[in-house]
Amino acid sequence: MSIRIVTIEREYGSGSRQSRAGPPHTPQAAEASLLEKVMQMTLSPSNDRPENPSADSPGSKSGMPPASANSSSQDAEVFSRLLSTRYSCRGFLAEQVPHATIVRILEMAQRTASWCNSQPWKVVIASGAATDRFREALYTHVAGGAQEASDFPFPREYRGEYLSRRRECGFQLYTTLGIARGDKAAYNRQFLENYRLFGAPHVAIITTDEALGVYGVLDCGAYVSNFVLAARSLGVASIAQAAIAGQSQFVRAHFNLPEDRRVVCGISFGFEDPSHPANRFRTTRAAIDETVTWADALQIEAV
Ligand SMILES: Cc1cc2nc3c(=O)[nH]c(=O)nc-3n(C[C@H](O)[C@H](O)[C@H](O)COP(=O)(O)O)c2cc1C
């Protein structure tokens, strides 16, 4: 079996939106339809195996359908661009995303793979006044001193490289916002922006079934990733928020969710405010050498 690794480009474009109504010929419409195509590929039985894979066709190496070299490289280019231009948006315009666009995001994300195809995610979408009611209630709740209470334990500790990466992105955010090192009151104000949903006109609440345990959460994590990429492909900015899961009981009560639904996270989304300073930085990624072990280079003795 060969492993292909898609290189994440370090080209952090602004991710600016082209056309919200999205006539079919816009670059974003093309990205969305290619992303849809990538997600639909497994649907066609004829896609299972290339019939006559040529030795040098990309399909023969990757197990991908017998796509032409051209379309395969276009798919990779679009996917890579979506990955590299998506970022966590922390300043949104008030303008609503058209309902049809939200439905398209949901339909794309619905193609997410899950263990036994259980598709454990259930999603509450709030728009307009429903978002504002949630925002006001949640902000008041947390600013009033509510303790964090999540359905899943939050990280016990960030250590070593995880701590340095966490510090780096926090430092980037505070620097871009002009917050001085150690200014705890300003840190707290920015933290509370989570509960204003960073001004987003929409929020998606992602929940899993209690009985599915950690793998249900894992499947929902994959769903979140596809949701934000699908949104990006349509020019919609977003941010996943564990901070919302930190108030899971409140969220369940507010949206009248059954007790067996566990809150994984929220995703605030809408159109980016390009003039908001919080949107002016991009996080880095470790080189794959830091995360990948090539087993064929290890000296492993048979036991
Ligand atoms: C599951 C998950 C939960 C997150 N929770 C929060 C959050 O509560 N508040 C926040 O400001 N950012 C949150 N983020 C955004 C991360 O900080 C961000 O993804 C990370 O720093 C990488 O930056 P990027 O998304 O811009 O590439 C979350 C991201 C993920 C994937």
How would you briefly describe this protein structure?
By secondary structure, the chain is of the alpha+beta class. The protein folds into two domains: 19-85, no CATH class; 88-295, 3-Layer(aba) Sandwich (NADH Oxidase).
Mean pLDDT: 85
| Count of domain modules | 2
How many strands appear in the DSSP assignment?
4
Question: How many helical stretches?
Answer: 10
Distance between the termini: 23 Å
Strand portion: 5-15%
| CATH C-level name of the largest domain | Alpha Beta
Ranges where pLDDT stays below 50 over 5 or more residues in a row are 1-25, 41-63
Q: What small molecules does this complex bind?
A: flavin mononucleotide
Strand line-up of the largest beta sheet: 1-2-4-3
CATH topology of the largest domain: NADH Oxidase
**Over the alpha carbons, how many angstroms does the gyration radius reach?**
21 Å
Q: What is the element layout, followed by pairings?
A:
Layout: H1 27-40, H2 58-62, H3 69-85, H4 99-109, E1 122-127, H5 128-143, H6 160-176, H7 184-192, E2 202-209, H8 213-233, E3 237-241, H9 242-245, H10 248-254, E4 261-270
Antiparallel strand pairs: 1-2, 2-4, 3-4
Helix pairs in contact: 1-3, 4-8
